[in-house]
Design brief:
- There is one protein chain.
- By secondary structure, the protein is of the alpha/beta class.
- It has 3 domains: 59 residues, Nucleic acid-binding proteins (OB fold (Dihydrolipoamide Acetyltransferase, E2P)), CATH 2.40.50.140; 200 residues, Vaccinia Virus protein VP39 (Rossmann fold), CATH 3.40.50.150; 153 residues, Beta Barrel (OB fold (Dihydrolipoamide Acetyltransferase, E2P)).
- The chain is 26% helix and 25% strand.
- The chain has 13 helices and 25 strands.
- An 8-stranded mixed β-sheet has the order 9-24-25-23-22-19-20-21, with helices on both faces. Strands 12-11-10-13-14-15-16 form a 7-stranded mixed β-sheet, with helices on one face.
- α4 packs parallel to α13 and α11 packs parallel to α12.
- The longest helix has 20 residues.
């Protein structure tokens, strides 16, 4: 110190001895451990499957949703993340012990694709899970007045069961974890496959999809290779340009295959591509569509039939059905036969009854029921489907049947003839509220409701519950390895029970 003032040496000593600044975290949250002090995560057990198919574990007294987990798994979790509605999610960092119902997925893409969310679960366990979820949703509606619950009907072969798949083409490839972990170098590669869950702008490129016979993948990869060889640009979803866009493959149990190729714009080289698709073994029908829209739907677009027959034929419910590019048909033909047997059993017709078939589509259920009824009248609001239904009736020489193009709610409100049975097979959204009100006013003595969505089924049964009693429930697994479930219920008017 010089003349009472601090010198350089004093300043140095002061800097060396003063304490480090206290962080906001240490000042306000001293009770929380630092990452370096946190203990190693302990293994936890997966307790059950949630409604969305994810496993449930309990960590620090709170539920955590775990991807690709099976009840009974003993796992160490990766970091737990908070998602919407305070939901906590994680994934498996290490699997110590596999649960009894864990299965090895046949598909190499199941984790990234998201289409088959349950392929890591043994098929019998999938059936138990789906049946339990259905009961949990419907049983509270019935209270003490429970219907006859039948055991779920599963598939003999839970692979290659679909008769229709739609693939997408894109110039943005989604890199799977397998791609990331590999030594390969990926540039701006195009892809042909499916959108990963939540990724509308990119496509997961597939080696093989086991939901349909191999001809579907053969057609997809032919289009992919041809486009690269001829430098045809793949579609860009964000910028909405490109040529290669979609491929829909349909196949019947007769082995007839239809290819519907969708392009963002026309190009002279597409003629050679369509020739190549038509030359593929088993392909009997090829169609082309130019889609300049922002969405992939082709149902409002004109199609050009380029090769083979304009349609393919399917055997279902004792009838031969004409299937066109835009026709709706149950996506699992083998399981649809089981479904239709259940409908016929529940209908228990004697040959004189009048039946109203709502949302009749191309007439597949109507034609089956007409063989057992006095007369069937089908209602469908899509004109092309009604045209196909009338052609299918003529093809199968069934005369005690008629079809009308109309909305279900308007027909029920104006229909004055008494009917003995209403069959209802609505889309996933269920029955329109106006149609529910009209159905209650119509007061048919019995209803057979065929549902592809337990959630909308529960809502509609609740709306009908004051007027109709549910007497039988039969779940049918139409889509193995997914969360979807088909259900047939029989409803009887309450005055009649």
């Amino acid at each position: 110190m010089v003349d009472g003032r601090a010198g350089p040496a004093d300043h140095a000593e002061s800097l060396d001895t003063q304490s480090a600044p206290v962080s906001w975290r240490d000042r306000h949250l001293p009770h929380l451990p630092r990452l370096s002090d946190a203990p190693e995560p302990l293994p936890v057990q997966i307790e059950r499957l949630a409604e969305d198919g994810q496993g449930i574990a309990t960590v620090d007294g709170r539920e955590v949703h775990v991807r690709d987990a099976v009840p009974g798994d003993l796992v160490t979790l990766s970091a737990v993340r908070k998602r919407r509605k305070r939901r906590r999610e994680s994934s498996i960092d290490e699997l110590h012990t596999a649960g009894d119902d864990r299965a090895t997925p046949r598909c190499a893409h199941t984790t990234d694709c998201g289409g088959c969310r349950l392929q890591h679960v043994a098929y019998e366990a999938q059936l138990r899970f789906k049946e339990c979820e259905l009961r949990n949703r419907l049983e509270p509606l019935f209270g003490q007045d429970q219907p006859e619950w039948r055991t779920i009907l599963g598939c003999d072969n839970p692979f290659e069961y679909r008769n229709k798949l739609e693939f997408s083409f894109c110039d943005q490839r989604w890199l799977s974890q397998q791609d990331i972990d590999s030594d390969a170098t990926f540039t701006r590669l195009p892809a042909a496959g499916f959108h990963p869950q939540g990724q509308f702008a990119k496509i997961l490129h597939l080696d093989r999809c086991h939901l349909m016979p191999a001809v579907a993948d053969s057609l997809r990869l032919q289009m992919y290779d041809y486009a690269i060889a001829h430098e045809l640009p793949f579609y860009n979803v964000r910028e909405k340009h490109g040529i290669m866009r979609n491929l829909i493959v349909r196949q019947t149990t007769r082995g007839e295959t239809m290819a519907i190729a969708s392009f963002g714009e026309d190009h002279p080289a597409l003629a050679g591509l369509l020739d190549q698709l038509a030359a593929t073994e088993g392909v009997t029908s090829v169609h082309k569509v130019i889609n300049p829209k922002g969405n992939d739907s082709i149902y409002d677009l004109p199609l050009e039939h380029t090769h083979g027959e304009p349609s393919i034929l399917e055997d279902l419910g004792g009838s031969v059905l004409c299937v066109r590019p835009k026709s709706f048909l149950q996506p699992n033909s083998r399981q649809a036969r089981i479904l239709y047997d259940v409908i016929a059993e529940f209908a228990k017709l004697e040959g004189h009854e009048k039946v109203l078939d709502l949302y009749s589509g191309i007439g597949s259920i109507s034609l089956m029921i007409a063989r057992q009824a006095g007369h069937v009248h089908g209602i469908e609001e899509v004109p092309d489907a009604v045209r196909d239904a009338n052609e299918n009736a003529a093809r199968n020489e069934i005369e005690n049947i008629s079809f009308a193009t109309a909305k279900v709610e308007s027909v029920l409100a104006d229909h004055t003839d008494n009917v003995d049975l209403v069959i209802c097979d609505p889309p996933r959204a269920g029955i329109h509220p106006a149609a529910i009100r009209a159905m209650i006013q119509f007061a048919a003595p019995r209803i057979i409701y065929v549902s592809c969505n337990p959630k909308s089924l529960a809502r509609d049964l609740q709306a009908l519950s004051l007027h109709y009693r549910c007497v039988r429930v039969q779940p049918v697994d139409m889509f193995p390895h997914t969360l979807h479930l088909e259900t047939v219920v029989e409803l009887v008017k309450r005055e009649l029970t």
